[in-house]
Amino acid sequence: MNQYHIIYDVLKKEMLARIINPITRYPIETVLKVPFNKLKIETENGKRKTIDYSTDTKKSIDDLPISFLKNLYEYQKEGIKFGINNKARCIIADEMGVGKTVQAIGISYIYRSEWPVLILCPSSLKYNWEDEILKWLKGKIKSEDVQVVNKGKEKLLKRAKYVIVSYDLSRSPKIKEEIKNRHFQFVIADETHFLKNPKADRTIVNLPIIRQSKRVLFLSGTPILSKPEECYNILSALRPDMFNNFVTYGARYCDAKKSILNYLYIDPYIKYKSYY
Fold it and tell me: In the prediction, which pLDDT does 137 show?
């Protein structure tokens, strides 16, 4: 047994027992491999919610239509399997142009019992998503099953199986309320680095919606543009059981120190209150 497996086994036991906060000791890529059957989430109104995965039926890439499956590259198949193995709650961070969109559509189809799907993306990509959905799910999805929201006062259609909303329009009070009332259980957030700034309106509006969904796919070729702190919002929404305190995260991954600007001093022996 190599060092990686030893760390993994120790971490798994500690997480199951909830003895320690693992992000103070282990690298992100190791932490994210720890399995989970339940996630405790704090909702937007401050209430606690438990997302239960223990009753999930077994999923397989073979659940895809044959026409879809035969047109995938091998690495795209591996990406879809990765999504299934992580209960469709993961980051797909392939480079630009290699098929993140296709993989997300494939995973969402496999979990079609939990439709409708909310797709959040930059304005320039809305119609690209519509085209790709109709192309890859031809015969399974009709044009009226895909709604591209173009106006801030537009109503979300109940018959829509895929609802595509730009990050900018998601800030509209009407759209925000419509999304909240639909209780989407499958959310795809494209170009996830758009949510890196915790003070931005699009982050404040969308992260609570994403966090509460059972299935979450983050897509980005550049999830961390320059600093590790930019990845915290994504990780806290994806795995709030592990990444639930920015101060602790900063101490472990960002080399946080006391500064003239914020007078922040990180003491690893002090317990800080969790944000979630």
Answer: 97
